[in-house]
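Fold sample X.
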Amino acid sequence: MYCDSIFPNTLLTISLQRDQILTALLPSSISVSTQFNGEPRSYTRFNLTQNMEGENSQVEMKLSSDMDEEVGGNGVGEDHNHAKEPYVVHRPAGRTPKSVCFMVATVLLIFIISYLIGYLSHRKKELAPPSCSRSTFEESITQGSVKMEADPVMDWNDVKRLLDEKMSASSFESAFSEFASESHQAGSAGDTVLAKKVLGRFKDYGMYTWTDEHYVKLVDPPASGSNMVTFKGSDLGTLRGYLAYSKTGTAKGAVLYGNYGQMDDLRKLQDKNIALDGRVLLVRSGKISFAEKVANAAKLNASAVLIYPADDRRIGGSTQLFGHVHLGSGDPYTPGFPSFNHTQFPPVQSSGLPSILAQTITVDMATTITREMEGKSAPTGWGGVGKLGDNDDMVTVEVNNVLAEKLIVNVFGVIKGFVDPDRFVVMGAQRDAWGPGFASSTVGTSVLVELARTISDMVKNDGFKPRRSIVFASWSAGEYGSVGATEWLEGYLSSLNMKAFSYINLDGVVTGFPTFKASASPLMNTLIQRTLEHFSPPYLYDCVVHVFLCYLCFNSMEPLRLNDPVYPFITFSGIPSVSFRFTTEGEEYPYLGTLDDTREKLYGATSNQVAKLAVSAGQFAGRIALRLVHDHLLHLDVEKYTRQIRTHVFAINSKIKKVQSMHPQLLPKSLSVQWLMSATGSYSRAASSLATEIDNSNLEDAELCRNINDRIMSVERDFLSPYVSPRESPFRHILVGSGSHTLKALSDHLDALQIDHSDANADLFRIQFALATWTIQGCANSLAGEVWSTDNMI
């Protein structure tokens, strides 16, 4: 007897000589046919079924009819020609030692077969997926699960169909009711209640879940009394609204109207020979963030800023306004690092904190001031204000806000990928709000949870197997400047910029009807446009679908802004990201940042289409995310940055020539843009080469696909300048970030050099110019792949 293996598909061949053994010991499932009178015995086979792959496992029993098989084909003392003759069975008179040996061997065989059957039936239970449990971020994502032996297969059209079928307006109406809250300010009891609800829903869907806690410094209104604004000695009234992170104290100065507070607006005031030194600037909301308005005023030495709601047609005259004025994101008292253990860090604060006072006032209060202002006439189109203000129009601003340390909690759930579980897309929404926050937080949280339910159901019940993971995140302290999200980015920066390949923001996705707007990293523009081209929202009225689709394809993209929730993801962490929203053309939803952001107001602004628009928002975000985890290669277009770089380089080249012509002592002729152009060309060639490589790649080569995806993921990260401090300049992206290291700052610096401005510094410009060049070249080298593939001519 010999045995090749004890595993499935093993052939066990046994030669037996005794009919008594066959009759007494072999199981009934083995049929044995013997013939006497010199006829050969026959053999049969039987199968063991149900192996670990669901296929048939075969164990073959062979009863030999050939003596040569019994003794290895060469019997001792016999003629070899006998092997061709039939073997005749002779019955011995009794048992011999040899027959006992064969009997023991057969019993052993039966035992092995029984064990094998039990092993195979139990094996499938061992391979069942583990139950979901709470784990940390690193355990849930970076350690991953076992890769599949075969790629997950589901047609993309089937994926879209399942997504669309599982999302309904009725489910969103239920979600709105569940997550609506009158009071859920960051760090409050109401915020904690909502966090537990989101966590519970993630657990109900069978997701891996975990939480992320931070002690951060937030700002509350005065513990007793309130902030105060007086005009010509008269108190303007009670102020409930406030601006977090404003400087505290008292400032007094003549009021000066500044429209939206943009630098262009303030330059118009300077053109009228009006100085801002010591003035209290009165501006209306909109166009740019509150923080940028205050920063612009501080640059021109204003003493304080008052901000009132711009849309006085729809918003009430007594509506209070809330916001923050930190020119950055995250906890401004732990800039560049996370607020995990705040006691270990020395006292420090963000460079983005304002140096002047800032306070919001109501429309009625602003009207009281503008009605009595004197001075020069305001430019046309400045909100109907007649006069800009005179030196006698005195205003006193008193800010007594309280800085408070609070615990905030981010909540996470993950659907793990089946091929590359350590690579993931993040979908997130803020959970907190100043008041009811129905548009700012409730709708986004509902879309987040409904997407988690839908995709989990697709995986569990419909056989969808994403290649990569999907992380769902519920952030706290979003109203204070994406504090919760930024602290998470700071805490896991080294892991995230190598593993998170995209972020999809769900804040404020429904604020109007029927226009669609999006802001994103250029890497995602192609994916967004292709998604929109094949996206026909099923719940919108037929009469507006045509108008809607026109805006989708031709008027959807808008530039990134500092107060966009995706801004820190792109410019601080180097993660390609997208924000989007349904809105009303030419109008912004006026109730964000007020206590009037209620369900009733949003339903009125959308003709009662909130739930249907939420379905469309969920389908759009879901298609973006699922496309990124479904296909072999990431749909991020690295060639989109080529045009943007060239635009900046062209402008810089033109301005350098002008400065060299006007002020040769500042920039000598030896300074050339050749190296910047060379770096631009290197990036362009690397991007084109990668596109060609993708077109010719074998998608079944898992290692090749992972290598290509790694190079794609590196682009956004490599555009973060390595030469500036995350504390001083956190938004390090040289193309869409902010600070002196950006290409836009280089262009602005050249403008200052042209007019020989006092702030211009030719040596500083040359340093920034060289570092920007090397940043672009470094990105090109990384994109090219291996070090021997680089195109470095510098």
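Fold sample Y, listed below.
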Amino acid sequence: MAAPPKLCLPITIVLVVLLSYCNRPISGAGNPPPFACDVSKNPDLKSFTFCNPSLDIDTRVADLVNKLTLKEKIGWVVSGSEGVTRLGIPGYEWWSEALHGIGSNGPGVVFDQNNVPAATSFPQVILTAASFNVSLFHLIGKAVSTEARAMHNVGAAGLTFWSPNVNIFRDPRWGRGQETPGEDPLLSGQYAVAYVKALQQRDDGDQTRLKVAACCKHYTAYDLDHWKGFDRLTFDAQQDLDDTYQPPFKSCVLDGNVASVMCSYNQVNGKPTCGNPELLNGVIRGKWKLNGYIVSDCDSVAVLFNNQHYKSSPEEAAAVAVNSGLDLDCGSFLIEHVEAAVNRGLVNESSINRAISNNFATMMRLGFFDGNPSNQLYGNLGHKDICTKENQELAREAARQGIVLLKNLGNSLPLSPTSIKSLAVIGPNADDKNFNMIGNYFGTPCEYTTPLKGLTSYVPTVYHSGCNRIFCDVAQVDEAKKIASTADAVVLVMGSNQSIEAEGLDREDITLPGQQQLLISEVAKVAKGPVILVIMSGGGMDVQFAKEDSKITAILWVGFPGEAGGAAIADVIFGSHNPSGRLPMTWYPQSYAEKVNMTDMNMRHNSKTGYPGRTYRFYTGPTIYQFGFGLSYSGFKHRLAEPLPTIMTVSLETGHACQSSDCKSVDAVEPMCKNLGFGVHLTVKNVGKLAGSHTVLVFSRPPRVHNAPRKQLVAFRKVHLRPKGEEVVRFEIDVCKDLSVVDELGNRKVALGKHVLHVGNLKHFFNVTI
């Protein structure tokens, strides 16, 4: 028998924290974290050079490495590093997570009712990215790093956090796409840099030290977990690697100065990434000059041997990983086999020294070897700094900024809280209390506001789940129609959750699960007022039926909006916040999932085979909603504040081959690129009646050479404008950096010929010549 509808009255007081967190310990309680060089317990440690924080890190690391035996060294090439008691060094667990708040996935983080029961859970990354707000990315990272240090001080977390995930969201079925900033290399790179800097940078400005250590993962071309029996796979396209998959990692290292990069399970050019010297020693350490350590994805060194059969013995597998540039194994494979590899002459002890030197240098930058952390810069942080009112409000604001308005017929939104006397709230995601709204890689949230709770804080509601579960095998249509037919408005909260898309769980279809579509359409038929469809998901959904149904007046995509997601959804629906999010990924029709093999890693379309390509940069087929799409309750117009050039001339050195032959592109290198750029100054005006934020997206359409992208994002900026207000937004475009393309061999080129810049309805044509 179906459950009767639940009547909910407005909530006048919203709890800020979980009841259990109200009785949290006072600051200073909990277990002290492990640290080396505790001279208060062992004064003899003062004589060790590595325990002297006044010396430079290289000197200290060299001293420590020289004091260790081979067995002791090997204890520090695995994530569960072993202590060296005779030198006053405790063991350390490297694996902690901080994807969108402190997560409990790794053993380095422990939530405990008697110590730290909860931490602020921000929206899943894909929704935060939809804000296109770099300042917001930074604010979230800074809040997370403060809670991380506070948890470390009470023994509840480590100092090394394996976040963010900056893989490209290549395929809408990927279960971990929700963890990423989306499908665009520029947006992903900007997110990575802002978040990494916010995690790592100290408040005293000391660039040689770290607040916590971030890690950009999973390097590289990794975006498939488990689809139709296929697991993480191989990839062999240099052009796609260099112009799509690598840029976010390059930004992480060069611009974000990240302390770590994690190599992935998959193979690139026939080699496992964690055993690929070209990618590790050659690119990360060589070209990009990583100042930090390279860590494997968990057990990927074991996978290299046991599953991929890349080497014939475990010693050879251990050797290829270390010799390729791996410093730390998340797992136990190296501690079990690398000593034998050294004894067989497959690995030199100097390579072990290199690995642990990078690991120890990171720990010294974190203050692990500086004695008691309570005497250091962040030693005063504790329970009082976790789940603060400010952080919880930031979580709500982040969700508000990311929510994307996809449809709004007749300005049916926002609803008026004074004119809506009864609101029907229907759907399996409306009152889910199992933390599915938070997304994967999460910890225990400070509070948890469901959409039903958030909406009930504005108006009286009547609720029914409408489905027996998220898969909606059985839609409870009659019961849902009954409450919808008498309500002034209907909100349907549908979509997916972590049982449909998550790590190790890729989707096969990109339609709404089960009978959700039937439920939505039937409810819309009997509704007497506005019908608002709220889609909670990590990836896009084929909702063409709802887009075309005039009875469904509005559609919102809310990602997985975090602990305050329900409040943020209600704020948008009732107009307390004017939506400004933009989709960070393309929404494809179901036919895409039926025709395109998820294991095909190629980005570019192929007209001979009918392959349509991937992401807005290369995809040539129909879409449900395009990358960058998003509506507002206001209207915004752009106009050029200053004229733009119509010709850009590339100066070539004397004797350049292109001076005597017909070239379609030239190398994007100095000195040719010096001063080759121009400003784009746009006046943006809010022509609506409500204050609101607007994201200015600048796209480039290059000449059709080297199978270049159809278009690509080259700049973006978010502005907030009062009604009728306007602001000049300035972008500086570097032709070689921003408008170049990658050729078939992976070389960056400036295409000659007609380029197009466009912002909204504005288009500007100009030629690049020699």
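Sample Y note: The first strand starts at residue 6 and ends at 8.
Also: Residues 5 and 458 are 19 Å apart (CA to CA).
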